[in-house]
Specification:
A 6-stranded mixed sheet has the order 8-7-6-9-11-10, sandwiched between helices. A 5-stranded parallel sheet has the order 2-1-12-13-14. The chain has a 3-stranded antiparallel sheet with strand order 3-4-5, with helices on one face. It has 11 helices and 14 strands. It is α/β, with parallel strands linked by helices and 273 residues long. Helices cover 34% and strands 22% of the residues. The chain folds into 2 domains: 4-85 and 196-271, Rossmann fold; 90-192, Hypothetical Protein, Haloacid Dehalogenase-like Hydrolase, Chain: A, domain 2, CATH 3.30.1240.10. The longest helix is centred in the N-terminal third of the chain and has 12 residues, at 22-33. One of its GO terms (cellular component) is cytosol. One of its GO terms (molecular function) is magnesium ion binding. This is HAD family phosphatase.
Length: 273
């Protein structure tokens, strides 16, 4: 039987209003009763998941975990005890930030305590409010106040993926071998410390818990889920996943995120195992 299941949140587990649908909640509850550990793995900061963890009843003890910031941090779900932090050097973040200042993007710097938005647009502000994020809009391009903070990641936001991919191409001389680059939610170009991704965090946590990778499942939809789908013993792409993600997966669900794709995976590979 599989012992760990790692699940992306947005466009995988959650509905478009950022809640866990009843069909997924019920399947997860049954799987946990059977002994499965269900581990959210998200690009969000952990403080942005409180309501989700409550809906999943994962906020009641520190025997459960969440992977945040695309693998940049692992904490317990009860009291958010830090298990692992893999942050970025301020000088490197400053280089990325200085490049982004001249682009038509919203830049977001994430720390364990919250995030800071530069050149924010109303759509992104509204999204952060819906996600119940702890965020602050900065009116200028001075990030020096973050120098003594622990920075988990920096992202560029724009609802134009061809634009973001071109930006990433232009930044290759700056990012190559220095930064882990990924995309998510059809609106984010994300930068983490080198080597940091959800797959690396999955492997680290499985090793920490003494569970072989063969007994792990990962499910997701976007490019920042690719490494964990490849790393897990069973990699699953939801029906709405990007073509490359589906290609990397062992299985593709028949349902998309809005129909309860996670419940389909649990019923097929955990409850009926």
């Amino acid at each position: 039987m599989y012992e760990l299941m790692f699940s992306d949140l947005d466009e995988t587990l959650l509905t478009s209003d950022h809640h866990v649908p009843p069909i997924n909640r019920q399947a997860i509850a049954l799987a946990r009763k059977k002994g499965l550990k269900f581990i959210p793995a998200t690009g969000r900061g952990y403080e942005m998941t409180r309501e989700i963890l409550h809906e999943l009843e994962l906020d009641q003890s520190d025997e459960d975990y969440i992977i945040a910031f695309n693998g940049g941090m692992i904490v317990t779900t009860g009291t958010f005890q830090e298990i692992l932090f893999q942050g970025m050097e301020y000088a490197l973040v400053k280089e990325l930030f200085d490049f982004g200042k001249h682009l038509d993007v919203c830049m977001e710097i994430f720390t364990p305590e919250g995030c800071f938005l530069f050149h924010a647009n109303q759509d992104e502000i509204d999204r952060k409010i819906k996600q119940k994020a702890n965020f602050k809009v900065i009116e200028d391009f001075d990030m020096s106040f973050t120098k003594d903070m622990r920075i988990a990641k920096i992202i560029f936001q724009k609802c134009d993926m061809p634009y973001l991919r071109e930006v990433a191409r232009q930044m290759e001389p700056l990012t190559r071998d220095r930064v882990a680059v990924s995309y998510s939610s059809m609106r984010y170009l994300e930068f983490n410390a080198p080597g940091v991704n959800k797959g690396q965090a999955l492997a680290w946590l499985a090793r920490y818990l003494g569970i072989p990778l063969e007994k792990t499942i990962a499910i997701g939809d976007n490019e920042n889920d690719m490494e964990m789908i490849k790393t897990a013993g069973l990699g699953i792409a939801v029906q709405n996943a990007l073509p490359d993600v589906k290609e990397a997966a062992d299985v593709v669900t028949t349902k998309d995120f809005s129909q309860g794709a996670v419940s389909e995976a649990i019923e097929r590979f955990v409850l009926h195992d």
